[in-house]
Design goal:
Layout lengths: L1 H13 L3 H7 L1 E8 L2 H12 L5 E7 L2 E9 L2 H13 L8 E4 L6 E3 L61 H8 L4 H13 L13 H13 L10 H18 L1 E6 L4 E6 L3 E7 L2 E6 L6 E8 L2 H11 L11 E3 L3 E7 L4 E9 L2 E9 L4 H14 L1 E2 L14 H8 L9 E7 L6 E4 L9 E3 L3 E9 L4 E6 L10 E2 L9 E6 L10 E9 L9 E5 L10 E3 L5 E5 L14 E6 H10 L5 E2 L8 H11 E6 L1
Parallel strand pairs: 21-28
Antiparallel strand pairs: 1-3, 1-4, 2-3, 2-5, 6-7, 7-15, 8-9, 9-10, 10-14, 11-12, 12-13, 13-14, 16-17, 16-29, 17-20, 18-19, 18-29, 19-20, 22-23, 22-25, 23-24, 24-27, 25-26, 26-27
Helix pairs in contact: 6-8
């Protein structure tokens, strides 16, 4: 019954004079679809809730679903507010008029477009009255049938009204009536579709004009740089629909103290795990968001930067940048893409991580742009204080709930010059996709020597080593106590350990030159570490055990490349080795401190 009343109302509306109708047609635009089939399906669904659903084409391949018409804008606005308050229509619905609407497509068979001009009144001809004979009650005979009236041709369908497009001067005049918010909305729509990359300020300068012209060109329109009313409405409607599909909404996460625009149609809040607030994927979207919030200083920020890169959701390939008070990490492989940003301000570290499937790059690029432009820290609150500094316990807390990526293997190395070049064993760098120093600095192989088993690494950025190895220049004394500084347990412990033993002989068991034989219980992670005497002089580099041969030596028998062999190979590579002039014995704590300063964790990924 409601639908019948609505259709009758439309008929009455169409009977009004054309000028009156043009002034009285106001609609609530509740949705837009990119295809007619989708629009008709949605119109059918909306019609189960509202009797006054009408559909119109918008141009540029879009179809609008509306409620109405309403006699004036005030009544339309009042209904809009009421329906939004009751949650019956999308939050981005708005009032429009028939300037933005073109040909109708719903209800099926109804012509809702303005009717043509009223024809001149014509004299009415009264048809001749036909006399119908009544049935004869006595005879029961039927009267002769009345002659059929002569068939008349159906009146031609009125042609759809011509769409009158504005001239540039008219477009500029209508544009001048826009409010600042409407101008900013246009810039936001142009930015959403990749035509505008400056600030959203509502000022239509050369950059905005160029973006308008580019949008017009992309849509097959004359690139005047001034959008007509219809073009503006089409652009804004498409932008609003695209945002509605992603559910982009400003979210204020009170516990984390972060305000940011999130795709609420794709993610939903899951749980807190300080310093993270997790938003899981929604409806199988494959999208995740993690908000970052913790108190700390620059060392905490840098520690977070290092640790986040060990996560599976931060692939190894991609750009990284770290500034004094912020960092950005982009990661990408065939199945995962992610963007991470964090900044330090007033003793609080706030940030976010967006994770998606690379197949969704186009629309997730728009989501990321919305997140980047809206992100801000609010208040002076952060999640669960406890990461100042980044201790082992806090690191474990940081990784809770996230799968940590581990290197294939880790070995030891040591600094051999002031720029951060590292000497290690060739075994540590063979077949690696990526090599890192201390899990945070990328490095490349300068040389890998099969004859000596040595490899030299150059860090991606210049480092300032706490200590540089000083090599022995004379003969070593067999029988003296030595220590190997190395990451015995690979990347499990955050610092190297010292393993003590004895220098047995300055040659191998078979008389091999250039190596030294040690009596020392070393582990695989120690390989590549410096071998030091009691004065802190490096007498060699620990080599990995030979497990491929047929001879199995006792666990205490290990070998080291001699300092002289190391010095020769470094010189060939263009590095001047530091010669040691040390004598006497260092205090154990001083030896330990110096060894830690020069020893590096070398990881193969």
């Amino acid at each position: 019954m409601r639908h019948i009343l609505y259709l009758l109302g439309l008929v009455v509306l169409l009977a009004l004079p054309q000028g009156a109708r043009a002034q009285q047609q106001y609609w609530l635009q509740i949705e837009a679809q990119p295809t007619l089939r989708e629009a008709e399906d949605r119109a059918r669904a909306w019609s189960a809730l509202f009797p006054d659903v009408a559909g119109f084409t918008l141009g540029a391949g879009w179809y609008a679903l509306t409620l109405g018409p309403h006699l004036d804008r005030d009544s339309a606005q009042e209904r809009l507010v009421q329906l939004k308050r009751e949650g019956l229509i999308p939050r981005d619905s708005y009032v429009t008029d028939n300037r933005a609407l073109r040909e109708p497509f719903w209800p099926t068979g109804m012509n809702l477009a303005p009717a043509p001009a009223e024809p001149e009144a014509q004299p009415v001809t009264v048809p001749e009255v036909q006399t119908l004979a009544l049935p004869d009650a006595g005879t029961g005979t039927d009267p002769a049938p009345a002659p059929e009236p002569e068939a008349q041709a159906a009146p031609p369908e009125p042609a759809p009204p011509a769409i009158i497009e504005e001239s540039p001067a008219e477009a500029r005049a209508s544009e001048a009536l826009l409010s600042r918010d409407q101008r900013m909305e246009l810039q936001a729509a142009l930015q959403w579709y990749g035509f505008y990359n400056a600030s959203i300020d509502g000022a239509f300068g050369p950059g905005t004009r160029k973006s308008m012209a580019d949008w017009q060109t992309a849509n097959g329109l004359e690139p005047t740089g001034i959008l007509t009313t219809m073009q503006r409405d089409t652009l804004v409607a498409a932008h609003q629909q695209a945002q509605a599909e992603l559910g982009l909404q400003t979210v204020t996460e009170q516990e984390a103290g972060i305000e940011i625009t999130l795709p609420t149609a794709l993610v939903e809040f899951d749980h807190y795990e300080p310093p993270f607030a997790h938003f899981r994927e929604k409806n199988g979207s494959g999208v995740r968001v993690i908000l970052i919030s913790e108190p700390g200083d620059q060392s905490t920020l840098y520690g977070l930067y290092d640790v986040l890169q060990t996560l599976e959701v931060v692939p190894l390939s991609g750009e990284r940048s770290r500034a004094e008070r912020s960092f950005t990490i982009d990661g990408r492989n065939g199945t995962v893409a992610s963007h991470t940003y964090a900044e330090l301000s007033k003793g609080l570290i706030k940030g976010y991580m967006l994770i998606w499937n690379p197949a969704q790059d186009e629309r997730m690029g728009r989501v990321l742009a919305a997140m980047q432009s809206s992100f801000r820290s609010v208040g002076d609150k952060a999640l669960d204080p406890g990461l100042v500094p980044l201790s082992d316990d806090s690191r474990r807390s940081l990784m809770a709930g996230l799968e940590v990526r581990r290197p294939e293997l880790s070995r030891s190395g040591f600094y051999v010059d002031g720029s951060g070049a590292v000497l290690t064993t060739r075994e540590a760098v063979e077949g690696c996709n990526r090599i890192t120093l201390d899990l945070r600095t990328d490095a490349t192989v300068t040389f890998s020597d099969a004859a000596t088993g040595l490899a030299l690494l150059k860090p991606a950025q210049q480092l300032s080593p706490p200590a540089v190895a000083e090599l022995l220049t004379g003969p070593a004394r067999p029988g003296q106590e030595v220590a190997v500084s190395g990451y015995s347990y690979e990347d499990t412990l955050p610092a190297p350990t010292l393993t003590f033993g004895t220098l047995e002989e300055m040659k191998g068991l078979d008389g091999e030159a250039g190596i030294a034989r040690l009596s020392l219980q070393a582990l695989p992670g120690d390989a590549g570490g410096p071998v030091l005497d009691g004065a802190g002089t490096v007498i060699g580099m620990l080599m990995p055990r030979d497990t491929a041969g047929s001879r199995k030596l006792p666990d205490s028998v290990t070998y080291a490349a001699q300092a002289a062999t190391i010095a020769t190979r470094l010189t060939e590579a263009g590095i001047t080795p530091h010669a040691s002039a040390r004598s006497g014995a260092m205090a154990p704590e001083d030896l330990s401190r110096m060894a830690r300063g020069m020893t590096v964790l070398v990881s193969c990924w």
